[in-house]
Design goal:
This protein is α/β, with parallel strands linked by helices. It contains 13 helices and ten strands.
């Protein structure tokens, strides 16, 4: 069984997508349409060298979405998944690539999601940290013992759990988890506490936007972040997308579910190779690769 997977925020890099734009008429058309939908020239930022501009949530998210979705589109017949999944933002890329959402509607939702998250970050300064080398249950228990906001946010793979919360909560958690034997506790360079209650105002805005969009049947099942279960039901997909902003990303559990469902091959669609590396930590026998086009 073959899975196509889509990366989330953090996979961006200067120059991303430029090769597609310059070598595919279809890609160029979609990038130019995106500039109109977004009301700014995202291609100038994506193809440029300003790393700080690309790191801004309201830019990063649509940039990664566009790179992933346009790449999937021009793969043509090479894009034949048995199932798909996307890490956080990548769930939107997966849904568009499989036909659950149109390109335009998907980009509008990502635009709204990114703007709403940016606002929530500015309203409540907060951050995230990666905890390396501890069992999940130790991290979970420690988060519960801290009075400030700090919660598990991304279950990436065994021994790697990202936490999310207030600056004070993250500082206390990092100190305590280091004492408990964490190999590393690394603060991440992000705008805010994604996948925590701090994102509640963004969730409300996104819910309003999602409820105005029509979802169709897709070409294959998608494993969703909030429950690590596969579905083809557009109604459940919408419900789970709304919950996603304040719920942890169960990526480790998604990978384990895929392996149980006879996964043999993973193809990462979009910038970077992070997801391939995570799959290798679950099962080294799985064949992993990046979606590739020879121009």
């Amino acid at each position: 069984m073959k899975a196509f997977v889509f990366p989330g925020q953090g996979a961006q890099y200067p120059g991303m997508g430029k090769n597609l734009y310059e070598n595919s008429k279809e890609a160029k058309k979609l990038f130019n349409l995106a500039n109109k939908i977004l009301d700014f020239s995202i291609t100038d930022i994506m193809f440029g060298e300003d790393i700080d501009a690309l790191k801004k949530t309201s830019v990063t998210q649509p940039a990664i979405f566009l790179h992933s979705v346009i790449l999937a589109q021009i793969l043509g017949e090479k894009f034949q998944p048995d199932f798909v999944a996307g890490h956080s933002l990548g769930e939107f890329s997966a849904l568009v690539s499989c036909g659950y959402l149109s390109f335009e509607d998907g980009l509008l939702l990502v635009k709204k999601r990114a703007q709403a998250m940016q606002k929530a970050c500015e309203k409540t300064p907060s951050t995230m940290a990666a905890i390396i080398g501890l069992e999940n249950k130790i991290v979970e228990k420690t988060c519960l013992e801290i009075s400030e906001i700090v919660v598990p946010a991304n279950y990436n793979c065994p021994g790697q759990l990202v936490i999310s919360g207030s600056f004070e909560g993250i500082d206390k958690a990092c100190a305590k988890l280091t004492e408990l034997g964490a190999r590393r506790a690394i603060k991440l360079s992000v705008d805010g506490a994604f996948h925590s209650s701090i994102m509640a105002p963004a969730q409300t805005e996104l819910q309003d936007a999602i409820n105005t969009i029509k979802f169709q049947k897709g070409i294959c099942p998608i494993y969703q972040n909030v429950n690590a279960l596969q579905t083809i039901d557009p109604i459940k997909i919408k419900e789970n997308l709304i919950k996603q902003l304040t719920s942890p990303v169960l990526w480790m559990q998604i990978m384990e579910s895929m392996v149980k469902d006879s996964l043999t091959q993973v193809i990462e669609v979009g910038p970077g190779k992070v997801l391939q590396g995570l799959f290798k930590k679950i099962d080294r026998t799985i064949e992993t690769s990046s979606a590739d086009l020879k121009f």
